[in-house]
Write a structure and sequence with these properties.
The chain has 755 residues and is of the alpha/beta class. Helices cover 31% and strands 17% of the residues. Helix 8 packs parallel to helix 10.
């Protein structure tokens, strides 16, 4: 039986009434995305039609998922909200704080030792406030959610950008910052700008070496890393229905890399099969009763151009295996000779040192079985591994079943390292080098999503390429980036030429899933007696102090940094070794913007102080400004804050005294996070004004006292020679968000309302 089955049944009862009402109000057939959105309005039954990309709407999500790195800050915030129990079903998952090095047994033991303080805190807070807790080793949050909690037609939010994985089971699942999660946990509405809709029609059928991963790699090539911003991507067509549920999850998962609000698929037979295989027959039965409401109206998919803001069509029968990268997930290259040419032209290392399979996006039983079929061929055909191979199973259930069925044993026969059921290298938790900054130039291939510089191993010289699990396995065996398994031969240990056959695998385990201990802890019905303590001398955890409002008169602000080019959340608040400080705001603030490139000297973590005239690290420079009572601003380029949902990237600058972030454009989640923390997140009305900003500038907001929705703000830039420029800044704040600003943060407002 599923978790929260009565809640799911009520969602379906509401859905019929609310979708019917929405169809009448809008006067048109509805997409799946619209059906889910209109059936989850905070006010209940729809009474008006919303304008895509314009109207801010209050929603009522069905559930929340927290991962350990972001859960710390989210739960520290929730502890201040004045509530005794979470208002909606919530779970905490411990998957980020486990470093991959030696293998599962050793790595998990070390993690339980070094991060015991954090795990104990999360477990006790979860128990106190009625939150389900998944222990370290239980699995990666998104795979665990897919196996246990996701359901067609539902809406969930999670404090990780890859929450969107649950779209593979027909949800609208959206990554948010911790402050957004706290709102919903406290029983408040969750606000989202009503998304635009991108329809992706999939024709044909996947076969041979082409995998679901290649679909999203192609979409990323088409839309780029910001092409999905502010939109839900809805997949449909015969190619969609012919794909497995976990394959759909892979596609939705990597949708985070195109900036999409989320991605989803309509309910179909593959989802029903997956629900029944994961012992949720009751959910499948309930979904079947409202099946017509769990996919788009027939007219939508017949004439998609009339109902979506953008339509893309991909013929899966013509799609081939792709490699995306390096350093960005949208740079797509077909396997083979084209990669040879690109690699030679750009000086990418041809030799591949590691292949990595798994993580939250490609760690299903199907993924592991198809990759293992390639590994078994290597054994059978006498091929020796040319690169090292690492495996991160998605959950204990997948790991246990794959071990039972001999899949993991095949990888082990090739001397692969089976890492913990955790994120590991995907999020920088990979102890590959003792000195990553001085590590050699190299190439790796992985089935993960993100491949920004330094992402996996801290080495800026690691060129990471994204591929399907089966292609990753083949390239790791061949040891060459430009290996094409469809046509290229390899020399085995007997000197013979051999070729790989097409990969094979199972959509679901033939003998069913099995697990001895899934790692789940049920919270107490009454957690009032649970004591949550934080050591005042802890390096890992720190209780929060409310932010002071910035006010309506910001004058004499200085430039902290003008960031050049790509500035992701990894640049603003690095993961890797810094994950250990995710629960201690002041300590993690020491990594603030250390990865951002200074536009004036093209160096990282080296900015000029207007107090001393000297250059120093960004955090040190900013702490001096804070001590002197001087506000600062950060200036950035396009898609600022791309990547993770981590709200630390907003909280750290706020904690250190940054008042405003002014950029050409924002990534959605990061913009919201800045608003939640009571900061100014603004964009240049004229992008060329970015070029006006000089290193020694002083800034005055001349009309901040008139801060209002749809009203530009004016910034006076005072240059060191005494000349000035006055520029206009745009913003997307509504009245409620301006209230957050005026109170100092959204949390401050929640506390005030609950007092």
């Amino acid at each position: 039986m599923a978790f929260d089955i009565e809640m799911i049944r009520q969602v379906y009862v509401n859905m019929k009434e609310r979708v019917d009402a929405a169809r009448k109000i809008t006067g048109k057939p509805l997409t799946l995305s619209e059906k889910i959105l209109y059936s989850h309005l905070w006010d209940g039954k729809p009474t008006k039609a919303f304008t895509r990309g314009k109207d801010y709407v209050d929603f009522s999500p069905d559930r929340i998922a927290l991962q350990d790195a972001t859960a710390q800050m989210a739960l520290l915030q929730f502890m201040q909200a004045g509530k005794s129990k979470v208002a909606v079903p919530t779970t905490t998952h411990c998957d980020h704080l486990i470093q991959a090095k030696e293998g599962a047994a050793t790595d998990l033991k070390l993690a339980n030792s070094t991060s015991s303080e954090v795990f104990n805190f999360l477990e006790s807070v979860s128990n106190k406030y009625g939150i389900g807790f998944w222990k370290p080793g239980a699995g990666i949050i998104h795979q665990v959610v897919l196996e246990n909690y996701a359901f067609p037609g539902g809406m969930m939010i999670g404090t990780d950008s890859h929450t969107v994985n649950a779209g593979g089971l027909g949800m609208v699942a959206i990554g948010v910052g911790g402050a957004d999660a706290v709102d919903v946990m406290a029983g408040m509405a969750w606000e989202l700008k009503f998304p635009k809709l991108i329809g992706v029609k999939l024709t044909g059928k996947l076969s041979g070496w082409t995998a679901p991963k290649d679909v999203i790699l192609k979409v990323a090539e088409i839309l780029t890393v910001k092409g999905g911003t502010g939109a839900i991507v809805e997949y449909f067509g015969p190619g969609a229905t012919s794909m497995s549920c976990t394959g759909k999850g892979t596609i939705c998962n990597m949708g985070a890399e195109i900036g999409a609000t989320t991605s989803t698929f309509g309910y179909d037979a593959s989802m029903e099969r997956y629900l029944r295989a994961t012992e949720r027959t009751d959910v499948a039965d309930a979904a079947n009763e409202v099946a017509a409401y769990l996919t788009a109206d027939t007219e939508v998919y017949t004439n998609p151009e009339q109902y979506f803001d953008q339509v893309i069509e991909i013929n899966l029968s013509e799609l081939g295996p792709l490699l995306n990268g390096p350093f960005t997930p949208d740079l797509s290259t077909p396997v083979g000779t084209e990669m040879t040419d690109k690699a030679n032209k750009n000086d990418w290392p041809i030799n591949v040192e590691w292949g990595l399979i798994g993580s939250c996006t490609n760690s299903s039983y199907e993924d592991l079985s198809r990759a293992s079929s390639i590994a078994q061929q290597a054994i059978d055909k006498g091929l020796k591994m040319k690169a090292e191979l690492g495996i991160n199973p998605g959950s204990e259930q997948v790991r246990y079943t794959a071990e039972r069925d001999g899949i993991l044993g095949i990888f082990e026969n090739l001397d692969a390292k089976i890492f913990t059921n955790a994120c590991g290298p995907c999020i920088g938790q990979w102890a590959r080098y003792s000195d990553p900054k001085n590590a050699p130039k190299n190439s790796i291939v992985h089935s993960f999503n993100r491949n920004f510089a330094k992402r996996a191993d801290g080495n800026p010289n690691t060129h990471a390429f994204v591929a399907s699990p089966e292609l990753t396995a083949a390239i790791a065996i061949a040891g060459r980036l430009d290996f094409n398994p469809l046509s290229d031969k390899l020399i085995n240990e007997n000197g013979e030429e051999v070729m790989f056959d097409e990969p094979t695998g199972w959509e679901l385990p033939p003998k069913g899933f099995d697990v001895k201990d899934n790692g789940y802890l049920v919270p107490d019905d009454d957690g009032s007696g649970v004591v949550v303590s934080v050591n005042n001398n802890s390096e890992r955890l720190q209780l929060l102090t409310p932010f002071t409002p910035l006010g309506n008169s910001i004058k004499g602000a200085k430039l902290l940094i003008k960031a050049f080019g790509k500035c992701t959340t990894d640049h603003i608040s690095m993961a890797g070794p810094w994950l250990r400080f995710r629960g201690h705001l002041d300590n993690i603030a020491n990594n603030t913007l250390i990865g951002a490139v200074n536009a004036f000297n093209k160096k990282t973590n080296f900015v000029k102080s207007q107090i001393t005239g000297e250059y120093d690290a960004v955090p040190a420079t900013q702490r001096a400004y804070k001590k002197a009572g001087i506000n600062t601003i950060v200036v950035g380029d396009h898609n600022y804050g791309e990547g993770s949902s981590r709200e630390h990237a907003a909280m750290q600058p706020r904690h250190l005294g940054v008042a405003a972030v002014i950029v050409k454009s924002f990534a959605r989640i990061h913009e919201t996070n800045l608003k939640k923390q009571g900061m100014l997140g603004l964009t240049f009305a004229n992008e060329a004004d970015y070029d006006l900003i000089q290193e020694d500038d002083t800034f005055n907001f001349t009309d901040l006292y008139e801060f209002a929705p749809d009203k530009q703000l004016t910034l006076e830039i005072v240059h060191s020679n005494g000349s000035t420029d006055n520029i206009k800044l745009n913003h997307t704040y509504n009245d409620a968000q301006i209230d957050w600003y005026n109170e100092g943060s959204a949390l401050n407002l929640i506390k005030k309302q609950n007092a």
